[in-house]
Amino acid sequence: MSGTGLYLGFDAGEKRLGVAVGERVTATARALDVIRCKAGEPDWAMVNAHLSEWQPDAVIVGIPRQADGSASHSTRIAERFAGELARRSGLSVHRIDEHLSSHAAAESLRERGQATDVLDAEAARIILETWLSEQSS
Predict the structure, then answer these.
(1) Could you give the residue ranges of the DSSP H alpha helices within 55-118?
(2) What's the pLDDT at 136?
């Protein structure tokens, strides 16, 4: 596999889009940004700015599912974002189950005493690190 070894991770929601960057070599990621959305549509100029700045090899999008594995409104928003991101960027978009990533992100922020206004970016970090660790196993 060639390229930068960098990946962007996204936690897509109706009101906010969390963004994280990570690297394959260390299988670690860091939260970058929270982009506001209107009716489930992110500010694509901001998304494109992150893509241009980081030049990722691929992107990872967390897909939320119900506890029983079924789809929800949030699932449809994330799937729509993943599809549009692939179309607009031309990059490979990998989907990963993000069941409970927001809960893990809230706990992580609470433990570090950080504000919850970066919750979605922290969830994107967890999604991306999960995917990166799965790739190295």
Answers:
(1) 73-89, 101-112
(2) 81
